[in-house]
Amino acid sequence: MKNIKILLILLMALSVGSCSKFLDVKPTNAVLPEDYFNTEEQLNRALIGVYDILGNAALYGNYMHGRMGLDADEGFQRSSTIVPGPITYDTEATDGTVQNMWAALYNGINRANFLLENVNKPKMDETRRNNIKGQVLFLRGYYYFLLVSNFGDVPLITKSTQTIGNTQIARTSSKLVYEQIERDMLAAEPLVKTATEVGFGGKISKSAVWGILAKVYLHWAGFPIKDVTKYAEARKWSLQVITSGEHGLNSSYQQIFINYAQDKYDIKESIWEVEFWGNDAEAYAESGRVGTVLGIAQSTDDQTVGRVLGYLNATATLFRKYEDTDLRRDWTIGPFRYSGTPPTKINYTATQIYQRNAAKWRREYEVVAPKSTISTPQNYPLLRYADVLLMFAEAENEVSGAPTTAAYDAVNKVRRRGYGKDINTPDAAIDFSGMGKLTFLTALQEERTRELAFESIRKGDLVRWGIFVNKMKTVEADFSRDLVPDNLKHGVRAFKNASARDVVYPIPSYEMGLNRLLVQNFGW
């Protein structure tokens, strides 16, 4: 945790409409916490400061999609210029991206703690005050969820401090951290608005709380804690989203991601997303790298396609999980490359598999110009309705001891949409049926990667299922067997390097130097 001598508050107006971006305003100042939190407006501005951490470059603003190895067996580094780090699973405790992730999350927690301690200061309507409190409690819980699922045991801090760099606090067991996450999110649930009342995905709603609670419980039920009683809770909260009547699958898988590019909200499908605004073409922007870190590589400043770094290619292992008729494949994995000026699309041949970029976010659909910068206004999903359906199916299978009609119905709706079919019409050629518990779980594990690839979810799933190393070694074997182009053979490095220690990141050396009570993770 870096030294924090003041709490930086982004002085932004709180957007409450469904058609305007949550962060679509400009910061003007920073103040000391003791001089703040005196009005409702100041509470709302401080709330934005807590949300703002989500878009930090160390998190969803950049590194968490493509640089932190969270895609696991789905992708590999495209460039042959290898820089050690999480993406190639040869990182060290001194790695800057790991340190910055830790620091950003504790910064967000500290901001949340400041606001929670001062939320009762101003005179204001109690319903609006509680709504602010609920959002902050949830965000604090979410930041701890990112910490515990990526670092294991971490210091649990629930009181603010202006100088936390030299705080001597030992690591708290993951079980106790999960219990704090649970308390925060359960306390938040009755205080926040429904998804319909909120109207857009950039702000916490009851549905976001329910869905993320389901995700928290699934991780809690899996490795390393393995408290299988939490599957029932995961089932309960995912079902709450489903039965709310507020959500449904977008009929077009591609349109989900076009909407992110075009600043269009779809609260039915995209329940919670990280907000970005602008593209650094003016003095202020709350932009990110969605669509440039991951995307179909394009190095020129073409204004139609946009500049794309394209850090990741998809593994052949992922490509082969899709059937040819699964429409998700050629949207998730680019079926073409750009060539020439102006760029034209050159389709890959059937044997050109390793050459294909991760491609869900496509800058050609952006409506903000110019596209010559590597910063974009595209939002990034944290919870989609399809994820909720798949989580429910998994939890239902675990609780019932076998896949039920409800579990099949949930996963088959996702599959039918993926093939461009009506989600409510059974299709024997597509639908899962007649499976036992383990067979269904294995099929569901593959369905999650087909649906959610490159959404920073896969590694966490593999770890909680206890199959992370096995799946990484499967990709290594594929690289060894396949005819991989010489300029891409370096891609096997991450899968060779991956080992049991990589289920979590190392505790940053910088933090251990400041906090002598910290001890390092296994293998680091």
Description:
With 524 residues, this protein is mainly α. It has a domain at 193-275 and 380-466: Serine Threonine Protein Phosphatase 5, Tetratricopeptide repeat (Alpha Horseshoe). It is 39% helix and 5% strand. The chain has 17 helices and six strands. It has helices at 40-51, 96-118, 126-151, 174-188, 195-198, 206-221, 230-243, 253-261, 316-319, 329-332, 385-400, 405-418, 437-452, 458-465, 468-481, 493-497, 509-514, and strands spanning 75-77, 270-274, 312-314, 336-339, 344-347, 380-384. The strands form three sheets. It has a two-stranded antiparallel sheet with strand order 1-3. β4 and β5 form a beta hairpin. The longest helix is centred in the N-terminal third of the chain and has 26 residues, at 126-151. It is globular and about 65 Å long. The relative contact order is 0.14. The model is unreliable at 1-30 (pLDDT under 50).
Which features characterize this protein?
mainly alpha; two-stranded antiparallel ribbon; 5% strand; two-stranded antiparallel sheet; single chain; Serine Threonine Protein Phosphatase 5, Tetratricopeptide repeat; disordered N terminus; 524 residues
